[in-house]
Request: fold
Amino acid sequence: MGQYILRRILYWIPALLLLALSVYAMAFFGAGDPIKLMFLREEGDVTYDAQRLDAIRREKGLDRPFLVQFGEYTWHLVQGDLGMSVISGRSVNDMIGATAPVSFQIGLATVILVALLGIPLGIIAGLNHNNWVDNSILGSALFISGIPSYVVGPMLMVFLVLGLGIMKTTPYGWEGLFSKKAILPMFVMVFGSIAIIIRQTRSGVLEVLSEDYVRTARAKGVPEFMVIVRHMLRPVLTPVVTVLGQMLIGIVNGAIIVEKIFGIPGLGRLTIDFTYGVDYPVIVAITLIGAFLVMALNLLVDITYPLLDPRAAQAMTGVEE
Amino acid sequence: MTTQEIAPTDDFGIAEASRTNLWKDAVARLAANKLAVIGIIPIILLFFIAIFGPYLTPYDFLAQDFTARLAAPSSEHWLGTDELGRDVFSRILYGARTAVAVGLVSTAISLIVGLIMGSLAGYLGGRVDMLVVWLTDMTRSMPALLLAIVINLTLKVPLEAWMEQMYLATKNGFFRQTMWVDLVLVFGALALIQWPGYARLIRGQILSIRSRNYVLAARALGMPTGRILTRYVIPNAMGPLIVAVSAGLGGAMVLESAFSFLGVGVQLPIPSWGKMISDGLRMWQTHPYLLAGPAVMMAIITVSFAWLGDGLNDALNPRQWGG
Reply:
């Protein structure tokens, strides 16, 4: 097990380095000059002269060749330093430190709520296979999840504020996970991804229902609730955990959009604000964090899997997906 | 001699009968699924609008009516006008073009790339397989929107500079239309996001079908590879692929609008629903219909694709049925 984890983590290093290199190169050779862009944006295109730009570039070490800069960046990166933002001059570590907790809270809360709501709903739907309960749960989940978050969010705002008059103003900004302002963003996030879990749980229940051990348990007179908890939950949950893992990329994507709609100061907002200024330390840092998160969470899913399904423990070493 | 004569015709007859039954069954199952049938209607309508939209719109999507800026919905402007006095209804119809064009082209590109990479990985195996799997894992571990933002913002400037250079060198007016840069970037980003899904699906299909007993039997009987491919591998792989393409089409349209929503999509003047939504979001409290039109349209289309995809999945992959 320990060896397996170590091997997986070792496998991340070339992946992350390659990603850092390609994003850095794309920003360096492609995006244009961050200093020039900064001047263009802040003072208009009249005031900058080449000498001043050169001076700033030298001061920030941006006049050196690509490999030197990238080497230095990587060296700092290995030590846990994500560098300095070219535009704001602040440490990227601080910027990430200020925004990441907000995004993580949203992401974590989404996963927990999706699991807490989605799994019971999926079980109910599965037990009521093809009657109106099943149809309405699955139909409405597919309906809401089918609509992209950048449509649900604004439409909910129009509906709640202008249509029903329940809310007085727009929920804009962030005051912590348990404030009223978090309700709408969380709603959009949770219902954006709940259908996958409901469907997976439902089809798992349908599969297990016809198993002999479920029939035996029922024949023995085990109460229905205990049949569900003791005999059905575990085989049903195993694939659900995998699907929860696959949802994570969707959650990161959703967070970028939800943060934009509701003006939440998280990683997504940081991405949008700073990529327009071609601030490459920030861009590379955010892409690395995004990729790292996805890989780490995938590993976590793969480790949890054999705990739920002993058969997977044997097959784990050397099997992909 | 007689056996030789009978064998091919008999064989042919069975193959024909079973093939038509497979698709007939699928169509029957799809038609029995009410949600899927409901979902098909808006999608057909969308394609119709995308093709004939310009002949249906009451106004040009760029035509400005300064006397009626930000007008509320009326008989003249069915869904009102935006801040430049452009008819929202016409813009939505034109937006269907953007959505369909981007969806079709990017799905086609990623499908071709996925087909090539997936079949290379599935057939050659070994190092090639490992490389393709690693590449797809890498791409899939990147959040799609982040990838799109980075690609768009970093490659746009040099591409535009290159276009300008080409224009100066060739004096060809084509290179002056920066719209193409946007389209190339959006298609590129979408293809980059979507090809790994197709590649993995095709690789998996090839690996699983190739080890099935009927393929083994056909090979043992000396059936040529081409025949095995057309008779067994392709028909069996088709079902999951159709489901994936249907989902991919809807997904590409959603992503295209998401790009536009975040400001990295196709830039105006071509209307895009995502852009219209993000523009409408700026004054949703005073002029909610600017937002509502494209948002409702987007909602209908995406839900239709979800329902159709679900129905197709049930119809074409009957083995996945539970219970």
About this structure: Chain B touches chain A through 49 residues (CB under 8 Å). The two ends of chain B are 49 Å apart (CA to CA). The first helix of chain B runs from residue 2 to 32. Confidence is low (pLDDT under 50) at residues 1-15 of chain B.
